[in-house]
Specification:
Blueprint: H1 13-21, H2 26-34, H3 40-46, H4 52-64, E1 68-73, E2 79-84, H5 86-90, H6 92-124
Antiparallel strand pairs: 1-2
């Protein structure tokens, strides 16, 4: 089993926050559920860049940390829905701030990304 070289410091608020919603797609998953996408297939369609497997893994992690709750309805085919818990809803202002920052800086980041691609291509030669 893998053992981390540096033990987690769960007394550090930033480490705790990054543990919970630091996964690449977790903020997008939380935002998607908040916008009404409750079923796994809806979440997958809302985040086409992420593979369903990764979304499912991150949903399971969010469920384990009580950020989302999972409801399984009986019947065939089985129906599953995810909802935000109170702790999950408490993350929404942070995600809104991240979205606002991203929107405000997206043009500059796009320009810098293009420059880095060109520099990377030159360095590869």
């Amino acid at each position: 089993m893998y053992t981390k070289k540096k033990p987690e410091d769960l007394d550090c608020g930033i480490e705790v926050a990054m543990k919970i919603f630091g996964g690449k797609w977790k903020p997008c998953i939380i935002d998607s559920i908040n916008k009404g996408k409750k079923r796994p297939s809806e979440i997958h369609r809302a985040i086409p860049s992420a593979t369903p497997r990764v979304i499912n893994i991150q949903l399971r992690e969010l469920e384990n940390y009580k950020i989302v709750s999972k409801t399984i309805y009986p019947g065939l085919p089985p129906k599953v829905e995810y909802n935000l818990t109170a702790m999950g809803r408490s993350i929404l202002p942070i995600i809104a701030a991240l979205d606002e920052w991203g929107q405000r800086n997206s043009k500059e980041i796009k320009k810098l990304s293009e420059v880095m691609k060109v520099v990377g291509a030159i360095n590869m030669k």
